Amino acid sequence: MKKYIYKASVLALFAGVLFTSCEPEVDYDVNPSAGAELDFSNYVAVGNSLTAGYQDGGLYREAQLNSYPAILADQFEEVGGGEFVQPLFSEAERNGSGYLRLAGLPTPTSPVLEPVTTELAVRRDVQPLPGGPRLTKFTDPVNNLAVPGISVLSAATPVYGGVNPYFERLLTDAEVGQKSYLQKVAETQPTFFTMWLGNNDVLTYATNGAVADPTNPFSDKTPVATFRAVYTQMLAALTKGGEVEGVVANIPDVTAVPFFTTVNLNSIRQSESVPDDAVIYIKVGPAPTDVRPLTMDDLVLLTTKDKVGRPDQVQTPAGPVAIPHGFHPANPLTDSEVLDQAEVAEIKEHVRQLNEVIAQVADANNIAVFDVNAFFNNIKGGFNIDEVTYSPAFISGNLFSLDGIHLTPRGYAIIANEFIRVINSYYKASVPTVDVTNYRTVVFP
C-alpha cells in the first residue's frame, strides 16, 4: 500500500473553526464614517482560536498580527478607533506555541509538513498544564481576549485557567484556576465588541470523530440549555445593559472546512498504488461486526490521511497478520478517525440548534449577527476577488491554513471584510474594507 507522506501535526489541542453569507463584497472606496451609533475608541474582541489568528496548527506572532480583530482595528482607526492591544509574542519568541510549515507538496492533497520548533514562547521552568506546555505570560490589559480552544461551556468554568495554556498566560498566578473567562470578559469596558464564540462547543467533538474524551469534560457537544445560559451571560457582560454595540458571529458547518472534506473515498482511491475499486472499511459501532464500507457521505478526518493503508498487526486465529489499515473489515478506520454519515447529521443538527440560540440572544440584545454558517456554505463552489480565485479546498483554495481548520492571513482579511459589511449594514456606518491582496496565503517552499 501507498505510504502517505502527510506528516500529521498535532492539530492544536482545542481546535477552534471557521467561516460563512453570500459571495464577498469588496468596497475599498468609501467615505469613512462610524455612523451615528458607533464608538470604536475601545474595541474588544472575544473568541477562540479564530479570533486569536491561530493558523497552521499553532499561534505565532505573524499570525497574531494578521488576526481578523487586528485587521478590523486598523480599519476602525479611520473612523475614530483607538489603540488595539494584543497579547503578542515577542520577536525573540516569535514562533509562539510552534506551528507547521510546508516543506513539500508532491500532490495537491499530500503536503509534507514540518514543525517549527525554534524561537518558541514555551516555558520550561514550570510543569505543563493538562492542555499543553505553559506559554510566556502576558497579563497586561488587552483588547484581543481570544483564547484558542475555549468554548462557551468552558468560558464559565474558573478551573479552565489551569487547563488551557492560552488562557493561563493571560491570568496572574493568583487568578489561575480562580477566574473564569466570563469574569475576564466582564471586566472589560468596551465601546464596541466582536464575539465569535461557540465553535468549540461542537468542533472539539467533531475533530475527534464524534467521540467524547472521558478525561476531558469539554470534549462533548455542549447541551443547548447550558450554551444558552452562558452565552446570554457573556453577551450581557459585553453589552453592559444595552449601552455597548457589537457583532456576534455564529458557528460554521463542518462540511465547509477542509479538515473534514479533503480526504474521502474518491481521493483515497485516486492515490498511488490504491486500486480504483478499493473498498475502505470504517467502524460504526462498539460490536466487532459494526463495520461497513466507507461511502462518499462519510467524512475522513484530515489527520487520518497518513494512517490509511498503514500495515497494522491484527490478531487472527492463525496468529498476528499485517493488514493495511482501513482496507479490511478486520482493521477498519476507527470511530475517532471518521465522521460517518449519521455523525455528520448529528453534528449539523447541533450546530443548527446552537446557531438558533446565538440568533435569539443577539436579537434580544439588539446586536448584529454575522452569519458565518451561511457565508461558508455559499462559497463552497468558490468565488473571485480582484481576479483571484478562492475556495474551501485544502491549500489550493487560498483560504485555509495547513491545519485545514484555521484561515490564512488572506482568509482572515476576507472574514474581516465580512464583519465590516455586517457592521455597515446593521449600524448604517461606512467603515472601509481592506484590500485582501495585501495579505498572504499559504507559504510555499
Strand and helix layout:
Elements: E1 43-47, H1 49-52, H2 61-65, H3 68-76, E2 99-107, E3 110-116, H4 152-155, H5 165-168, H6 181-186, E4 192-196, H7 200-206, H8 224-239, E5 245-249, H9 258-261, H10 265-269, E6 281-283, E7 291-293, E8 299-300, E9 311-316, E10 319-324, E11 338-339, H11 341-364, E12 368-370, H12 372-378, E13 383-385, E14 388-390, H13 409-427
Parallel strand pairs: 1-4, 4-5, 5-12
Antiparallel strand pairs: 2-3, 6-7, 8-11, 9-10, 13-14
Protein name: G-D-S-L family lipolytic protein
GO molecular function: hydrolase activity, acting on ester bonds
Keywords: Signal
Uncertain ranges: 1-22
In which range does the helix fraction lie? 25-40%
Number of helices, where a helix is a run of at least 4 consecutive DSSP H or I residues: 13
The CATH architecture of the largest domain can be given as: 3-Layer(aba) Sandwich
Looking at CATH, the homologous superfamily of the largest domain is SGNH hydrolase
Q: In terms of structural class, how would the helical and strand content be classed?
A: alpha/beta
> Can you tell me the CATH class of the largest domain?
Alpha Beta
| CATH fold label of the largest domain | Rossmann fold
Largest sheet: 4 strands, parallel
Strand content: 5-15%
Helix and strand sequence: EHHHEEHHHEHHEHHEEEEEEHEHEEH
Give the CA-CA distance, first to last residue.
28 Å
| Total beta strands | 14
Dominant shape = globular
Radius of gyration: 22 Å
Strand order of the largest sheet: 1-4-5-12
Question: What is the mean predicted local confidence, pLDDT?
Answer: 91
